[in-house]
């Protein structure tokens, strides 16, 4: 939780500085925003290390195989990547590229989910 506070302060400070700098130098403001976003992203990654053992333990206890859990985790990662990159494009004023990235990430998520959907359909049709 402390890391989130630090990230929030960094994001707000970088945003305010970028607003002040943007009047004089658009490129430096963009670079400042991108640098702050990268620092915030890197600061948040170590927190994910606690998530993997928890997910592995849940997988073991529930009896689910990697066939079910891997597509879910991949979908989550693709969703976050698509949202982050689309937001970055929007910040640069490229709304059409952002929309295309969101559509591409949705398509990638559907492709990753196909094995999961096949397994689900197999289970549904085995009971009929």
Helix- and strand-based class? mainly alpha
Q: For the terminal residues, how far apart are their CA atoms?
A: 48 Å
> What does the oligomeric state look like here?
single chain
Count of separate structural domains: 2
Share in helix? over 70%
The fraction of residues in strands falls at under 5%
Q: Please state the average pLDDT score.
A: 86
Largest sheet: none
Question: Which residues form runs of ≥5 with pLDDT under 50?
Answer: none
SS summary, helix count: 5
Report the C-alpha radius of gyration, rounded. 20 Å
SSE series: HHHHH
Number of strands: 0
Assign an overall shape: elongated
Structure description:
The protein folds into two domains: 1-51; 64-128. α1 (2-22) runs antiparallel to α2 (26-44) and α4 packs antiparallel against α5 (95-126). It is an all-alpha fold. The protein has helices spanning 2-22, 26-44, 51-62, 66-91, 95-126. The protein is elongated and about 65 Å long. The chain is built from five helices and no strands.
Task: Give the key terms.
2 domains, 128 residues, 5 helices, mainly alpha
In short:
By secondary structure, this protein is mainly alpha-helical. The protein contains five helices and no strands. The protein folds into two domains: about 1-50; about 65-128.
């Amino acid at each position: 939780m402390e890391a989130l506070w630090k990230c929030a302060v960094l994001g707000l400070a970088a945003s305010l500085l970028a607003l002040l700098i943007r009047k004089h130098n658009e490129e430096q403001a963009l670079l400042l925003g991108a640098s702050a976003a990268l620092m915030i992203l890197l600061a948040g990654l170590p927190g994910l290390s606690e998530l993997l053992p928890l997910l592995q333990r849940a997988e073991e206890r529930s009896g689910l195989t990697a066939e079910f859990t891997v597509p879910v985790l991949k979908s989550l990662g693709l969703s976050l990547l698509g949202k982050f990159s689309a937001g970055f494009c929007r910040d640069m004023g490229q709304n059409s590229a952002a929309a295309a990235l969101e559509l591409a990430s949705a398509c990638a998520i559907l492709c990753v989910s196909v094995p999961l959907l096949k397994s689900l359909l197999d289970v549904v049709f085995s009971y009929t």
